[in-house]
């Protein structure tokens, strides 16, 4: 049996489809509402493709006011709402149910204001992550969080999941780069939280909205911090003959006082897959590869790399190769960022996302390999070593009966291991449906209850993305207090 | 009769809160008692976290520290310094400013969300905070976040707890992401600028690639002259390079009368930025102290609006986005003037310190949009259903009988 179960759709809602579609069309026009079953199919899943279910209808609003009108209708009619960014969630954050209305932000994709003196941009939330940086690059600025899906993923999804990226060791994740949001509450009221100043006036609501997985409201606009681009950046490749050695090298670099902007770790299966796919020039005869990137002027880069090389030399690296051109640097990153695509060519895969204290790295990698043997499934590891965020990619064959279930069980075991050593279930992908039922391994009843009470405040009827984040059983009474699931 | 409760463990603190919840008996929560910020909490019992003390875990190689809430900031700072690390957000010591004695606790730093000049580059207290344990108003022990720096498992209550002044729960343990302590510091010093010119220069510096970690402007230094300060930190050669480049970048923007120099002596740099961080310039002086959070370029306009109506003096931090204001008058009228000036542009103003003997009827915190105030109020009710934790401190309604 598959691990992920969704609530049964409410037949009473489905039987009212015509009436619901008419109400939505009256509010935002016929071209803003998709209801043909063949067309809603495009919204049946996100990047967690193992789970699919077309929604009742999809709305594509063009303004905050339209989002407000849609939510008011959904609230009045008691319809579950699934907010959707670009549909790149690996956790099933945008997975619909058959009785739900998907609200996509794809048409909200404008930059509204760029203020370089005050170092922020105000954007509509459907803009892609990379487009934000693209829009400010001409003035020498960039938006720091850089999830691997940055070409496609929307800022609204980044805010919902508090997305990270490779460079968060220095620049932080979404929450550290978000100054304000315009959010539509489930009852249609539009509120502004935060803004162009740095501190909240009272409670830090922005802090809890970021990462709330679309369960508090629909974010339609965001004020994002932008940073001046460094003068330069350069990665160095360090290859080692054992994972443990690479792990120790990471800790030693951190302890030395140098602060690289990124430290990426790949194990052997990942190195080979990425090299075959992207031809990035990775050495394929080492067990572990580190990409360490530093920033600054030429002299500063040299000063930092000298220190890093001296530290690495103490660990007898097999390979120590500095990038010596922008082309080489791009290639090195291309290899890493292509990891998921590379795996996708080899097999179906599930990408896990636990975080561990970096000191437990060697032990965790070893136990993961043992599990790999036990389950008979291959696993490749790429991860952000500076912050302990692991991305084990478990390879399986979707056409082989039972393989997905085995893969999910293996993944769950890995995440439980992350929690056991002092880490967490998800570092940057979010809980979604994927890790929803594992939450009890990290949080006890009181921990979960207080979180659900926060949702009670923002969305008392539990209509926004209701079957996500919390174990189905834990949220059952709240979801049922307000509407009945069909038998 | 006033009494002080000092439980020596999280479990006994939870028991104490449970008893108070059962009796609907409100408490004032204190750490080191060094930051009496917010509206007066009119209760007879005080609950201190002072005996929940000690560093639970410190892993320099993982840049992680976990400590009990009552651990003094000094203990933590010292332990980190031994490994060449620090809390990136540069927590301030407001004892001199607020006329308090004692030692700040790390729980108090978190509860008040105290961040210093480095906030512009390294983020605020909430950005370094990665995990909390706290006791809710019902006496439940709750954890959120953890000891790893990337964690999106469930809602981020860590941020919500930071700066909630004990109104959502009593913090018992806090975890931080640390950074290496910079080996060198340099400060570009510019004298003679008015507020607008100063903020323009600070914006230019913060918008440069030279990784500025402090950007402040003091209207009156010890000699009564304006001074603008821009800090770089890091490896020694790099600091020298970046302060040099900043000097070249900013020189053309300055009027001829302005002075431009670079301070490289470690002790002088420490003193300069401690003075900004702790708002030393207003310590021991009469008047109310306000803390304004605005869009950086609005800072000088807000101050100019206010100074047209009230006698005041300003210290700008965070490139102009944080304005400390010493105001002679501490009455409601002054509060109206200040808040109107802020409201005209966006942001908020907190009454940080009343006059030494002035009882002000003004809400210390800026009034919020009704829906946002309602959300905050409902959150407090969920975390503290009987309203027994620091009732009224953030303007929330008092305990229900």
Can you describe what's shown?
The complex is a heterodimer of chains A (487) and B (401). Chain A is α+β, with helices and mostly antiparallel strands. Chain A folds into five domains: 11-104, Uridine Diphospho-n-acetylenolpyruvylglucosamine Reductase, domain 2, CATH 3.30.43; 111-228, Uridine Diphospho-n-acetylenolpyruvylglucosamine Reductase, domain 3, CATH 3.30.465.10; 233-339, 2-Layer Sandwich (Alpha-Beta Plaits); 347-437, Alpha-Beta Plaits, CATH 3.30.70; 444-482, no CATH class. Chain A has helices at 11-15, 17-28, 37-40, 64-77, 129-136, 155-161, 168-171, 205-209, 243-255, 268-278, 298-313, 326-337, 339-346, 361-375, 403-420, 439-442, 445-458, 472-482, and strands spanning 33-34, 57-59, 81-84, 101-104, 111-115, 120-124, 141-142, 178-184, 190-194, 218-225, 227-228, 233-240, 262-267, 288-295, 319-322, 348-351, 379-384, 389-396. In chain A, the strands form four sheets. Chain A has a seven-stranded antiparallel beta sheet with strand order 15-12-14-13-17-18-16, with helices on both faces. A five-stranded antiparallel beta sheet of chain A has the order 5-6-10-8-9. In chain A, a hairpin with a 4-residue loop joins strand 17 (379-384) and strand 18 (389-396). Chain A is globular, with a radius of gyration of 23 Å. The model of chain A is unreliable at 483-487 (pLDDT under 50). Chain B is of the alpha+beta class and 401 residues long. Chain B has three domains: 1-181 and 366-390, Uridine Diphospho-n-acetylenolpyruvylglucosamine Reductase, domain 3; 184-277, 2-Layer Sandwich (Alpha-Beta Plaits); 280-353, Alpha-Beta Plaits (2-Layer Sandwich). In chain B, 30% of the residues lie in helices and 25% in strands. Chain B has helices at residues 10-23, 73-82, 95-98, 106-112, 119-122, 125-128, 157-161, 195-206, 236-250, 266-277, 299-307, 332-343, 370-383, and strands spanning 3-5, 27-30, 45-48, 55-59, 64-68, 85-86, 129-135, 141-145, 170-177, 179-180, 184-191, 212-218, 227-234, 259-263, 288-294, 312-317, 322-327, 347-353. In chain B, strands 14-11-13-12-16-17-15-18 form an eight-stranded antiparallel beta sheet, with helices on both faces. Chain B has a five-stranded antiparallel beta sheet with strand order 4-5-9-7-8. Chain B has a three-stranded parallel beta sheet with strand order 1-3-2, with no helix packed on it. In chain B, helix 11 (299-307) runs antiparallel to helix 12. Chains A and B meet through strand 9, helix 8, helix 9, helix 11 and helix 17 of A and strand 8, helix 7, strand 10, helix 8 and helix 9 of B.
């Amino acid at each position: 049996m598959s691990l992920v179960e969704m609530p049964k759709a409410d037949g009473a809602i489905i039987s009212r489809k015509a009436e619901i579609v008419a109400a939505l069309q009256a509010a935002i026009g016929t071209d803003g509402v998709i209801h043909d079953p063949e067309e809603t199919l495009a919204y049946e899943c996100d990047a967690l493709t193992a789970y699919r279910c077309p929604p009742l209808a999809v709305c594509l609003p063009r303004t905050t006011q339209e989002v407000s009108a849609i939510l008011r209708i959904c609230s009045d009619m008691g319809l579950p709402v699934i907010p959707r960014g670009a549909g790149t969630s690996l956790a099933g954050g945008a997975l619909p149910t058959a009785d739900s209305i998907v609200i996509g932000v794809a048409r909200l994709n404008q930059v509204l204001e760029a203020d370089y003196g005050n170092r922020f941009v105000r954007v509509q939330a459907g803009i892609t992550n990379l487009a934000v940086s693209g829009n400010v690059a001409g003035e020498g600025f960039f938006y720091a969080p850089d999830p691997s899906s940055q070409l496609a993923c929307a800022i609204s999804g980044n805010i919902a999941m508090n997305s990270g990226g490779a460079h968060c060791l220095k620049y932080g994740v979404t929450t550290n780069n978000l100054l304000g949001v315009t959010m539509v509450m489930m009852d249609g009221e539009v509120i502004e939280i935060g803004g162009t100043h740095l501190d909240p006036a009272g409670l830090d609501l922005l802090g809890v909205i970021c990462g709330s997985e679309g369960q508090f409201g629909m974010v339609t606009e965001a004020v994002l911090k932008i940073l001046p681009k460094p003068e330069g950046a350069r990665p160095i490749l360090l290859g080692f003959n054992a994972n443990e050695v690479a792990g120790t090298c990471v800790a030693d670099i951190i302890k030395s006082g140098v602060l690289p902007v990124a430290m990426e770790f790949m194990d052997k299966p990942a190195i080979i897959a990425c090299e075959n796919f992207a031809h990035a020039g990775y050495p394929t005869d080492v067990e572990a590869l580190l990409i360490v990137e530093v920033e600054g002027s030429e002299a500063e880069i040299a000063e930092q790399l000298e220190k890093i090389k001296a530290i690495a030399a103490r660990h007898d690296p097999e390979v120590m190769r500095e990038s010596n051109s922008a082309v080489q640097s791009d290639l090195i990153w291309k290899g890493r960022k292509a990891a998921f695509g590379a795996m996708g060519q080899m097999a179906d895969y599930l990408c896990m996302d636990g975080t561990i204290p970096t000191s437990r790295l060697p032990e965790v990698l070893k136990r993961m390999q043992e599990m790999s043997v036990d389950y008979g499934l291959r696993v490749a590891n790429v991860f952000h070593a500076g912050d302990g965020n692991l991305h084990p990619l478990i390879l399986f064959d979707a056409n082989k009966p039972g393989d997905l279930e085995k893969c999910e069980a293996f993944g769950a075991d890995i995440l439980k291991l992350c929690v056991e050593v002092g880490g967490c279930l998800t570092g940057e992908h979010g809980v979604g449906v994927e890790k929803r039922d594992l939450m009890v391994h990290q949080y006890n009843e009181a921990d979960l209850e207080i979180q659900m009470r926060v949702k009670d405040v923002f969305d008392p009827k539990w209509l926004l993305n209701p079957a996500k984040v919390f174990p189905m059983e834990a949220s059952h009474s709240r979801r049922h207090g307000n509407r009945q699931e069909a038998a | 009769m006033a009494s002080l409760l000092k439980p020596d463990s999280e479990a006994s603190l939870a028991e104490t809160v449970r008893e108070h919840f059962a009796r609907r008996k409100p408490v004032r929560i204190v750490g080191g008692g060094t930051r009496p910020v917010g509206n007066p909490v009119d209760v007879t019992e005080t609950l201190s976290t002072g005996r929940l003390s000690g560093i639970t875990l410190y892993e320099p190689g993982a840049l992680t520290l976990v400590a009990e809430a009552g651990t003094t900031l000094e203990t933590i700072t010292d332990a980190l310094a031994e490994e060449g690390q620090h809390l990136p957000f540069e927590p301030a010591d407001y004892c001199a400013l607020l006329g308090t004695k004692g030692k700040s606790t790390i729980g108090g730093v978190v509860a008040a969300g105290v961040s210093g000049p480095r906030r512009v580059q390294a983020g605020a207290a909430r950005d370094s905070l990665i995990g909390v344990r706290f006791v809710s108003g019902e006496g439940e022990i709750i954890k959120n976040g953890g000891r790893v720096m990337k964690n999106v498992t469930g809602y981020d209550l860590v941020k919500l707890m930071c700066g909630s002044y004990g109104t959502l729960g009593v913090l018992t343990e806090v975890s931080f992401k640390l950074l290496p302590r910079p080996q060198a510091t340099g400060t570009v010093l510019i004298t003679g600028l008015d507020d607008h010119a100063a903020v323009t220069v600070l914006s230019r510096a913060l918008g440069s690639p030279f990784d500025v970690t402090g950007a402040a402007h003091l209207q009156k230094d010890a000699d009564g002259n304006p001074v603008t300060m821009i800090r770089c930190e890091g490896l020694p050669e790099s600091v020298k390079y970046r302060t040099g480049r900043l000097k070249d970048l900013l020189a053309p923007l300055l009027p001829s009368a302005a002075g431009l120099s670079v301070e490289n002596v470690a002790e002088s740099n420490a003193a300069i930025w401690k003075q900004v961080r702790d708002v030393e310039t207003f310590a021991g002086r009469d008047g109310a102290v306000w803390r304004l959070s605005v869009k950086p370029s609005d800072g000088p306009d807000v101050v100019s609006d206010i100074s047209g109506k009230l006698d005041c003096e300003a210290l700008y931090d965070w490139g102009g986005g944080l304005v400390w204001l010493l105001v002679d008058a501490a009455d409601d009228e002054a509060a109206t003037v200040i808040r109107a000036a802020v409201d005209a542009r966006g942001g908020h103003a907190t009454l940080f310190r009343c006059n030494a003997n002035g009882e002000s009827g003004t809400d210390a915190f800026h009034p919020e949009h009704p829906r946002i105030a309602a959300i905050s109020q409902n959150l407090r009710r969920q975390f503290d259903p009987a309203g027994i934790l620091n009732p009224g401190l953030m303007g929330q309604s008092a305990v229900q009988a």
